[in-house]
């Protein structure tokens, strides 16, 4: 009759469901970036950092660098500047990705040195396509053993990535013959970190504009940290429940970090710093210059608030955006 | 609407109160409509203030202005914390393993907690065609544990052999080589008492009787040779406080209370 | 060099992409319910009618009855009142569903007579669970040969539904042994009909509140008809693009039909008619009474506008809802 | 920003104009950023007024206030007709078969239109590590046809043997028993001319040369024994109207035009 006895028998249940942090008012989830990284990102962990060009959790990556995490496996569809920085800081030993470039602005210098010349150390790399990564998150979030997709037929990728495998459909194909399809395995990060526009204190997270694969990356993970531009009152979130892409039951930590996506952008909050993307190709090409950049902007700042202040008000004015409000919809109330 | 005389406890009230107590320390519950709604809302006011109700329709963290009449009632949508798509609800929340307790009902249940909601009689030409699974198969397969509330406790409903197994517990799944996530049915709450099991390989056994009910009465009402716990407790009757909350705060309009 | 030559070689391409109706301003998609049903619902077709309790396209079902369609395969997760009515009117020979009941309000009389006693004719029935249906739509919309799900292990359903099959995962299970999982086949309806709150003239469709499986049902189908409470200006839709669940490229017809979901509801427009749900259990229990109901309310009305008028203003006042507006979000504009 | 002298047509302008013409009668195009953006926006003003641009980031029916600088630029989101989740974009729109033309680029292309965007040299220790597939594998596998715009036409880029096949055309897929949806690469547009193929089993062949370019020049710039159509057309040079639209309406700030 004891609940704990019952619980103990269901050994296959993911850890996450019982261990999500919470307090009566949910405020236990709200913490500083420092606390969240210390609590949820451990040496040797598999860390998913998602945000497809939009809402890249850069500030979280910087805090991981400041805390000197080692031997991480980073899972990220578009491994871009923040990943190059984490690699350069010595945090990353393995990368799982479908695009390793500096957006359309050039190269990632450190990543290329690692992969091309093992300089200063090798980097293990698992290469996928975008939809392959999407499907790995879908499988991970849905607790599926694999996810099928109509990609990879004829590609050389399966020859360098043995996790791209094939399954025969138990239904006949269009020509009535057996049909084969590639599948990818689930990814289940130890922790997923995403950036979002806003959440309530319990972690109900609202994102608009490009929503990418963030919700699935959160559900796929054992722990989830949501970094937000602002925490809003419960009433704001509840006025538009369809906007909540990540419900509180999937979130372990809520971190308030305005402008934490820079040089990426937050739709409706600040624009993308395209100049920095272009600059990064040059900075990262020169290991000395890269080290100096990290020293000044990451190690040299105590937290993201200092980084933001250091950039200065004029700089941020240049990324300011105007207003384009959504028209309200009526959810209705019973009379 | 009927008014219940003070002191008289109806079947709905009894079942709701007993079920609500079982929700202590649970975080997420997948609730159908009716008795599970009453039990969950009462638990929120008593033993599980932070419990999150997840509805099959996609609503998480509902804050309804009125007691919902369906699992898709407009009042559970307005003011909710999240409304998810059906693939997200079934795929990520349920199959992803985020539900502590799922509530299910059934026309028939067997000693392992397997359920029939498809047909009475033969599937191809049934005596009675029932609604079918809905999401019950998924609730059973993916919740940490499942509570069943049965309005009728008799040998036709509590049967030695299901006419059809719509919703299998983990024992049947394992026999087919499919690994279940949770424990299956861990509590069956009826007017006569509480049956329980803790997981795979274990039959339901009688662990408590309602006041005034004998172990023998429950055995006779059960269509298989019911196992009985070494110590059978007597269910504490609904307290004044529980009944008041249920009648005045949870369901003042008697939507489900009878 | 000729585009048509190129096109002709890609024989596996779904028909739908080339045949979506459209005109320069998109107005060619806006048509009456009568026109849409005549154009897109044919005898013998597989018709998906979705809407999970919310936004049930009842008016479309009634028009199918008025036009006397025969031999339809109806695909619908929750086969409820409108399906019982279509069966009673002789439109349906096969039903694919995961719940055949009158919500929580009782039984579907006609459906039960058909299945229990073949009275007055048999009804072929394919039984699934809800997630099984969801996965069939997911497979159909994503052009997958199958979709895996952790259901059905130990169920008797596979013994009466040979489309529930198993696949062995090419990755080892948690115990390192081979892992089996059930799969369902795709469903690709000839036409999917959904009801929504609003769309623009091109068919960009916005839904809020419960969104069910409508988007996937549309993408799974060869043709799609969207019935809306109202057509709005392009600017309204474009002020909130995240609210668009079905983009215009997936839509063939837009039908304006206010209150077309009755006795179901449209969040923010009108509430559910619970009395009618309860009444239907009695009406449908008696074949004579059911026939009389159809005669009066479906055959006896020229279209849904007449049905709405016949119910009367007082009736609709009883289902009116108050205002609960979503707080606007800022999408931002470049300065 | 540079100003282009009237009368002088830059490489970017030439490629954009030629590519835009190929979009006549197409309904949906999956466009990357750069030359495909210019070509598509010009086509909207000329041969394909109703063309819908779908971006990898999830945006359908963009109405940008400024020329987007990335496929995820904020200006393609504000005012768009729809923004879809990534699973919906890749699963329903792309794999579901809703894209008429996909635009791709590559470091290397072979005679069948197979593409390399992964490495120069050996994959395990490459001379140059390139960005990889992104969504290119999916665009190739699922679009009705694919256009490739190549800034450089030389034997290293147009190669007899790819260093690595990231993104296979349908011939390679079929050889592995996987049935492709579309025709693969049907157009390759370069400064020298246009190569074309119509589908499975067919090599790229030269169908048109830019004004002043000889067939032999194209052959020498191509790393395999290039087939040539019976009649090789000369590409009509960009018209005054096309250039004016491109320079004044599509990219007045010279974001991509060089």
UniProtKB/TrEMBL annotation, chains B, D:
Pfam families: CoA_trans (PF01144). InterPro entries: CoA_trans_fam_I, NagB/RpiA_transferase-like. Belongs to the 3-oxoacid CoA-transferase subunit B family. This is CoA-transferase subunit beta.
